[in-house]
Amino acid sequence: MTEISMAQALNAALRDAVKDDDRVLIFGEDVGPLGGVFRVTDGITADFGEERCFDTPLAESGIVGFAVGMAMGGFRPVIEMQFDAFAYPAFEQITSHVAKLRNRTRGALSLPMVIRIPYAGGIGGVEHHCDSSEAYYTHTPGLRVVTPGTPQDAYDLLRDAIDSPDPVIFLEPKCRYWSKEPVSFTRDGAAMDRAVVRREGKDVTLIAYGPMVATALETAEAATAEGWDVEVVDLRSLNPFDDETVTASVRRTGRAVVVHEAARFGGYGAEVVARVTEQCFHQLHAPVLRVTGLDIPYPPPKLERHQLPDVDRILDTVARLQWNDEPVVAGA
Amino acid sequence: MSRETPAAALLPSEVPVRFLAEDGTRVDQHGGYSDPPSERLVEAYRLMVLGRRFDAQATALTKQGRLAVYPSSAGQEACQVASALALTDADWLFPTYRDSVALVARGLEPGEILTLLRGDAHCGYDPAKTRVAPQCTPLATQTLHAAGLAHAMRRRGEDSVAFALIGDGATSEGDFHEALNFAAVFKAPVVFFVQNNGFAISVPFEKQSAAPALAYKGVGYGVRSEQVDGNDAVAVLSVLDDAVAHARSGLGPVLVEAHTYRIDAHTNADDATRYRDQAEVENWRAADPVRRLETYLTTENLLSTNDIERFQAEAEKFAAGVRDTLNADVEPDPMSLFEHVYAVPTRQLAAQRALVAAELEA
């Protein structure tokens, strides 16, 4: 297995999908000869032709709405929104049509398509380039929402997403595009819809996804110095939610912290906390806590280190779970 | 229709294309468009009589509580019927909530068309089988779907056309402009048909657009454009036949604006007297598309009194069938709520399905 970056793993997944299935088409702004602003579609137009990977006019609602029609016509579009906040003009198409066409037509029409959205911060991007928009999509019935935390998952999840008969919002953590690991291109088809335990531990479960998976793993390593044995669960699939894996982990450890970059209030973490609390109440030694971004518009690059959950902030929160089983008062 | 420059080739006629004056006599404003065959005009007339009766019946059914809501297209029959007649069964139609008469003209079952407005399901017919997309409630969003599907069909080697219906209000939406641009860039075989009926709910055209005509909006995108008298069935049919042929031959999209008028309110729930003068409505009644075509066809001896009576009798029978269908009580299955949300149902949904099943049993 060769060591490749997440961006390269995504590129490999796209290439393999285009090779394996004539119906798969890649399109969006700058995905052609440029290869995408993050080079995720690098070389695909050159190797497979403009019929399979092509640039469109710069209009996100147009890209998504056009993809709806292409999918109705028997193709499987894999489209790119370039940056998280750029997808907002397409929000109506995504929520009113992509999510609902199967239901509206009582199964007569389906929309097997993937909307790739590079999301979240940590890359020093200026405003409108670093939003964590997962809650908008996970709140919309009819969409599957996934996000890889590792290069291997990037490959597996994207292949599974393209094969999915349901529309998939594919959130790519920009700050992890360049992280590398050995990647196998043999798929077991198990990535979709399932969370995975990335690191086993006895004392506390860190529940993370996308860009925060690596941060959670770093935290777990740092926590050993404090004598804490931390388990890390990578959700991978945000909707549907894998209660089974998460619940089993929290029941083992008795403590849980949910970590995400997105703003806290009304955020995805609230759903995770509610589900864990409902299902693990009697096994919990402390309230389930969250470490999240602040409830502010994503800050300018020079201030983003205060926005992003880091190892220290997560460790401080883990410390608040109090290991001696004394009563805990949840803070902010 | 010879044009001097490529830009001019896209421009609509300076005045709306028209074959018939309001009183049904011939006028020469048709700019070289040819007369549709007479059988086609008689068929259009038959469907317009049928459509008007259907529309009146549906409106009456809202008063009886049988339909949750109905947006009338009375006065727009020429546009509605010509939209269906311009297409083959292999073409795709993308209608809005106001285009039920176009679906009647395409031959869909009235009970299936009215499923949406009755409140039973979001779409009562099978779009894959009928090649009619669900009637769209958001404005202009379906124009992009039409562009995408048209492009898909062309890539698959089909010579089918996608035909998108919208109103004047929808031309202010971003998706309309993105759809024109995408369709033009990809040379997608799609016809955008704007029924400018004067109002977007209560907002009149002059507050909707400062353009001399909505048809001019195509030019900036490189889309061939035309405007037509929307109450002249001969003109609408001729222009739409031409537009569909243009798109089908691979020359790219066409935008057609029909100038017509919404005789009734936005829906049965709306009070049109709050925003418009009754005298204006009466003026437009004088331009009635059904009577205009009837006068013309009768004068030309293409339609007899006997034909007219026969069509009216057919329309009455059709309306009775609509009443019977709608008066039968239908209780949608609550468990259908959980069907077709996903192709592969989620575990969350399975749990909620069990909850509703238990509630029903209790």
UniProtKB/TrEMBL annotation, chain A:
Its EC number is 1.2.4.-. Keywords: Oxidoreductase. This is Alpha-ketoacid dehydrogenase subunit beta. The lineage of its organism: Bacteria, Bacillati, Actinomycetota, Actinomycetes, Pseudonocardiales.
Automatic annotation (TrEMBL), chain B:
Keywords: Pyruvate. This is Pyruvate dehydrogenase (Acetyl-transferring) E1 component subunit alpha.
